[in-house]
């Protein structure tokens, strides 16, 4: 799933982000309310995890603003305020679930995955198709021509990003930022290695290649001409 974490505490942010990424989820992070609202408004996410007390804009204001935009993305609110009245206020503000701090990551993950399974989440597609290549994002299942393809978590994230941008040139910078969560060039061939492995799995045993290298630009996943 594509998840946005809006959390200003560095330790909590690292803890949650690391756990989600180890589970194979594409996770973006904002450390203040204004940036979080901007990211949630401009990009499609399957679930938001929003701290209630944030600099520049509090978490409940973020949720209320999204609901005013008719954005139905499921939101899990995190907060050190865990009394019944606080939870009720959070849910009535538009939150879908409320988890008091401190929390166990296993419980957070279960709640996030439950929110991700809810139907009618808006425009975020969880069933992706390019030609005879199909991905079920929630079940983490990939098939081509009805043949199951087993992918490692990073390969799955890479393919999901390429499928969501099918027919478009995807640059190395885009992949570094959205698949590897790097905002700098590590000066390695990590992208080439993973693209090569992915190409071997989704193209090698099939008649028509789907994953193409665009010289000097990046990569493109597209249907055969």
Question: Top keywords for this entry?
Answer:
five-stranded parallel sheet, four-stranded antiparallel sheet, Rossmann fold, 225 residues, single chain, Arc Repressor Mutant, subunit A, 2 domains, alpha/beta
Task: Summarize the SSE layout with pairings.
Layout (H helix, E strand, L loop, with lengths): L1 E5 L3 H13 L3 E5 L2 H10 L4 E5 L7 H10 L6 E5 L4 H9 L4 E4 L4 H12 L10 E4 L2 E4 L4 E4 L2 E3 L3 H12 L7 H7 L11 H13 L8 E4 L3 E4 L4
Parallel strand pairs: 1-2, 1-3, 3-4, 4-5
Antiparallel strand pairs: 6-7, 7-8, 8-9, 10-11
Helix pairs in contact: 2-3, 6-8
Summarize this, please?
With 225 residues, the protein is of the alpha/beta class. The chain folds into 2 domains: 2-116, Rossmann fold (3-Layer(aba) Sandwich); 127-221, Arc Repressor Mutant, subunit A (Orthogonal Bundle).
Describe the model.
By secondary structure, this protein is α/β, with parallel strands linked by helices. It has two domains: 115 residues, Rossmann fold (3-Layer(aba) Sandwich), CATH 3.40.50; 95 residues, Arc Repressor Mutant, subunit A (Orthogonal Bundle), CATH 1.10.10. The chain contains eight helices and eleven strands. The strands form three sheets. The protein has a five-stranded parallel β-sheet, sandwiched between helices. Helix 2 runs parallel beside helix 3 and helix 6 crosses helix 8. It is elongated and about 60 Å long. The mean pLDDT is 90.
């Amino acid at each position: 799933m594509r998840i946005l974490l809006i959390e200003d505490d560095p330790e909590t942010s690292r803890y949650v982000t690391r756990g989600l990424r180890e589970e194979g989820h594409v996770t973006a992070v904002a450390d203040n309310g204004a940036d979080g609202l901007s990211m949630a408004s401009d990009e499609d996410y399957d679930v938001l995890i929003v701290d209630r007390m944030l600099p520049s804009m509090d978490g409940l204001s973020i949720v209320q603003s999204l609901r005013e935009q008719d954005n139905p993305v499921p939101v899990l609110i995190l907060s050190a305020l865990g009394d019944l009245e606080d939870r009720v206020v959070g849910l009535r503000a538009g939150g879908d679930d409320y988890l008091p701090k401190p929390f166990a990551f296993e419980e957070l993950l279960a709640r996030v995955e439950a929110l991700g399974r809810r139907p009618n989440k808006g425009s975020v597609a969880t069933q992706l198709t390019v030609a005879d290549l199909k991905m079920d994002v929630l079940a983490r299942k990939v098939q081509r021509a009805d043949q199951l393809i087993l992918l490692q978590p990073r390969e799955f994230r890479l393919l999901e990003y390429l499928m969501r941008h099918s027919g478009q040139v995807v640059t190395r910078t885009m992949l570094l930022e959205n698949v590897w969560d790097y905002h700098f060039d590590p000066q390695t061939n990590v992208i080439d290695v993973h693209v090569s492995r992915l190409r071997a799995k989704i193209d090698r045993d099939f008649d028509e290649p789907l994953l193409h290298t665009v010289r000097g630009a990046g990569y493109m996943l597209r249907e055969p001409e």
